Hints:
- Chain A: Residues 23-173 form the SUF system FeS cluster assembly SufBD N-terminal domain.
- Chain A: Belongs to the iron-sulfur cluster assembly SufBD family.
- Chain A: This is Fe-S cluster assembly protein SufD.
- Chain A: Residues 177-410 form the SUF system FeS cluster assembly SufBD core domain.
- Chain B: Keywords: ATP-binding, Nucleotide-binding.
- The complex is a heterodimer.
- Chain A has one domain (3-384).
- In chain A, 24% of the residues lie in helices and 37% in strands.
- Chain A has helices at 3-8, 11-20, 25-40, 77-80, 107-111, 119-125, 127-133, 145-153, 386-393, 399-415, 421-435; strands spanning 92-96, 99-104, 115-118, 156-162, 172-178, 187-193, 198-207, 214-224, 229-236, 242-252, 257-264, 270-278, 284-293, 298-307, 313-322, 327-336, 344-353, 359-368, 374-383.
- Chain A has a 10-stranded mixed sheet with strand order 2-1-5-7-9-11-13-15-17-19, covered by helices on one side. Chain A has a 9-stranded mixed sheet with strand order 3-4-6-8-10-12-14-16-18.
- In chain A, a hairpin with a 2-residue loop joins β1 (92-96) and β2 (99-104).
- The longest helix of chain A has 17 residues, at 399-415.
- The model of chain A has no long low-confidence stretch (mean pLDDT 95).
- In chain B, the strands form 3 sheets. In chain B, strands 6-9-10-3-11-12 form a 6-stranded mixed sheet, with helices on both faces.
- Chain B has one domain: Rossmann fold, CATH 3.40.50.
- In chain B, a hairpin with a 2-residue loop joins β4 (57-66) and β5.
- Chain B is α/β, with parallel strands linked by helices.
- Chain B is built from 9 helices and 12 strands.
- The termini of chain B are far apart.
- The longest helix of chain B is centred in the middle third of the chain and has 15 residues, at 150-164.
- Chains A and B meet through α9 and α10 of A and α2, β7 and α3 of B.
- Bound molecules: adenosine-5'-diphosphate and magnesium ion.
- Magnesium ion is lined by residues 44-45, 89, 172-173 of chain B.
Amino acid sequence: xxxxxxxxxxxxxxxxxxxxxxxxxxxxxxxxxxxxxxxxxxxxxxxxxxxxxxxxxxxxxxxxxxxxxxxxxxxxxxxxxxxxxxxxxxxxxxxxxxxxxxxxxxxxxxxxxxxxxxxxxxxxxxxxxxxxxxxxxxxxxxxxxxxxxxxxxxxxxxxxxxxxxxxxxxxxxxxxxxxxxxxxxxxxxxxxxxxxxxxxxxxxxxxxxxxxxxxxxxxxxxxxxxxxxxxxxxxxxxxxxxxxxxxxxxxxxxxxxxxxxxxxxxxxxxxxxxxxxxxxxxxxxxxxxxxxxxxxxxxxxxxxxxxxxxxxxxxxxxxxxxxxxxxxxxxxxxxxxxxxxxxxxxxxxxxxxxxxxxxxxxxxxxxxxxxxxxxxxxxxxxxxxxxxxxxxxxxxxxxxxxxxxxxxxxxxxxxxxxxxxxxxxxxxxxxxxxxx
Amino acid sequence: xxxxxxxxxxxxxxxxxxxxxxxxxxxxxxxxxxxxxxxxxxxxxxxxxxxxxxxxxxxxxxxxxxxxxxxxxxxxxxxxxxxxxxxxxxxxxxxxxxxxxxxxxxxxxxxxxxxxxxxxxxxxxxxxxxxxxxxxxxxxxxxxxxxxxxxxxxxxxxxxxxxxxxxxxxxxxxxxxxxxxxxxxxxxxxxxxxxxxxxxxxxxxxxxxxxxxxxxxxxxxxxxxxxxxxxxxxxxxxxxxxxxxxxxxxxxxxxxxxxxx
Lengths: 436, 261
Ligand SMILES: Nc1ncnc2c1ncn2[C@@H]1O[C@H](COP(=O)(O)OP(=O)(O)O)[C@@H](O)[C@H]1O
Ligand SMILES: [Mg+2]
């Protein structure tokens, strides 16, 4: 933390915060240790983006009084539209200002031992389970200052646990709604899928604000055990005033499958990294992400898959649209470790530029320490093809509508992968809102 | 209902500074089918593209009028709204946009805002037209022209023609790459539109399409101009004798646009 932050969020403050939530001692200790480390370690240095002037210091750590949500029907429209109210049964977790205001899980799932709750409840009820996965094998506390600050100040999140052989058909949905403009989200999500289990999880970061200065510092750790399958979708939509750090980490064991479909729609300056380690043989990861940059925001995206296991298969697909004077870089990193024979690392990064003043770059990297592998990459930065526009317009379609079709088409490979229909539709809406 | 009139007067067109059309004159009226024939490289696609407003083609002289309105002043979408349609020789592929979404947007573009075609009505019309053209229904859910075979692309162009029912249709090499069965189906689609309200300009360098779609007028293009016009009997003569007699008659050595006459 910066000097002011260390003063403000002292060991005493953090201990009191932890005690007030009746956290297990290990968590209090972890927070305190992280606070102490955070002074000395450096900020991350995202490749090709200078973040020295980004404001990660202006925020409130705790919300003002948060009104409860008596019923989903009473949610404001911009939140409600993400929930499919026509459904009988939701597997839904709703955090408003980091407080669990609604939680539902199909009874047959809880009977089978599935856990889907907020992180504080999980700490209270499943302390040992959370301890096993919380910043241990996935993200490390001391990766850099932002991970340490996150660990010290974590103020909300979700915990998903799917026992062995349990296959969940209906997606789990988590909505993190920042209604208090100044409240920072130090949000931590953990998903554990035990052997032969399957789960689809979708998270939405939503806000009711635009310009108020605050911070989001979000970590998700995703563990797919042997032959488990995790499909992870997201719509990130933090406001223009929010400086955002997102770190989503996956670990796949033997025959595991992790699929990411990320809608990266923040309006403020953002660093977002998505790294998956394919540890097990025959493990698979599809990392798909779409982004729209607008206004004056600067964004740095990393999609990285590390193949450790033999015959492991990593495929990255990133599509970004850039308008106004927005800046973004898309790093695609495929890494094959020594011993990952017959591994495959593919990636495609494409950027569509809608304005002369926007800047977009694709930075494909392949790092290969093994001979017997396959790998490939494709990257491009381009504008809307005038001949495609001509073709559509020759059918009477206006220029604006033709561009809209081309842009949606460009983003479709990821949007179509978002598992919940209402969320997919909302992502389309968010895109629409950002592009026009 | 009487149709529209497309008039082309002394049209000169350049691509990248090179003059391709060197004074084309042509009038197509509702109810008339015109064929434009000519070997490769004589400016046929250039004429079609200039009429529709392709961004690469620059009109340097002459006029294009639709019912007296200046087409050259119109944006591409306005030309379509005015009743022009071009079935393209090389239609674009548009990833991520389904053929069905594209067709619906196209139809709605010709309707008033708030009067969009109801979804069920659209599906019924599209299915009927696809049946008529013996098309695989799955095509509607595939991305527009992406991975389509040559024949599928051509059928897709005719499908659009049938659904949009323009006043003037221009078909650029709609027959190329089609086997005889596909050619018959496509011809059936074109003939279905024949009426006083529909004028058609069929561009081809083969005669075979014209065995199924009989033109009222036939024009031969060489060196970026219409060098000969006649009736359907011209097709037969071209079929039996080729183009050489025209070249001889006019003293043309190279019929393409490349070398000036
Ligand atoms: N995009 C282009 N750039 C430069 N020259 C072109 C282009 N398109 C066509 N041409 C030239 O214009 C001439 C006429 O082409 P085109 O109108 O396509 O002929 P046709 O359709 O009769 O075969 C040819 O000589 C061709 O080389
Ligand atoms: Mg041609």
